[in-house]
Specification:
Elements: E1 4-5, E2 9-11, E3 24-26, E4 35-38, H1 62-76, E5 81-83, E6 93-95, E7 110-113, E8 118-124, E9 128-134, E10 139-145, H2 147-152, H3 154-164, E11 173-176, E12 186-188, H4 189-198, E13 206-208, E14 213-216, H5 218-228, E15 233-236, H6 251-257, E16 265-270
Amino acid sequence: MACRQARRLRLRPEGEAQEMSVEVIKARMLGEVPHGFLGRVGGVSTGIYAGLNVGLGSEDEREAVLENRRRAAEAVLPDADIARVYQIHSPDVVTVTDAIDPEDPPKGDAMVTNRPGLLLGIVTADCVPVLFADTEAGVIGAAHAGWKGALTGVTDNTLAAMERLGADRSRIRCAIGPCIAQKSYEVDAAFYQRFAAENPENERFFSDGKTGHYQFDIEGYVAARLAQAGVTQIECLGEDTYSQPDRFFSYRRSCHRGEPGYGRQISLIGLPV
């Protein structure tokens, strides 16, 4: 099954001034499960981090980042704690059974849980955020799929970890959030060969670019990995982080502009108490 294009829903929390409201992008596939893909709209950061920068690893003011994280959580599941991992572009998954110390998060690139009242939070700035839910089992997941993690199986491992908590992949619904689009993602021949060597069918996710280069469809690749793993309910938002500077942070765009740093956006999913 290929990825199904989404109709985007944008929700703005009440009680804040319009210019400070947070944009939350919802996936129809996830229904009433508390979730959201958040960009940069609605935060308190300034300068190159202007907006809802949630990256504690950036050079932004820590107080601003923490306030942005609070606003993000409040917009998706009020009063919930955000659980996060120290992302390392790996295929590793953390099973969350309790609140995670924000000052000492475990290393990994995906999380799963069946505990109500927790928000799983993945930060990205071009990489692919994927949210998972099996509502019948009460199990959710969130994954950060950069090209390394995607290639080495971070989404496959997330599905397996959810099953260990009682989920069934035939019921799991997945939403793929804002990420760098194929038209914006230029890669070299060595990058292309790495994917082609892993599986010759991966060539379909590359189109010709300038001489010696290709354009990589990482969103399509992640969707195909999910489908190959047995997921039949997949939705893509089709939002390009690179080409929408007013709405999303982008690592590659910041590099092309010669900026000294870049912000990160967050994708959240939780279970209500």
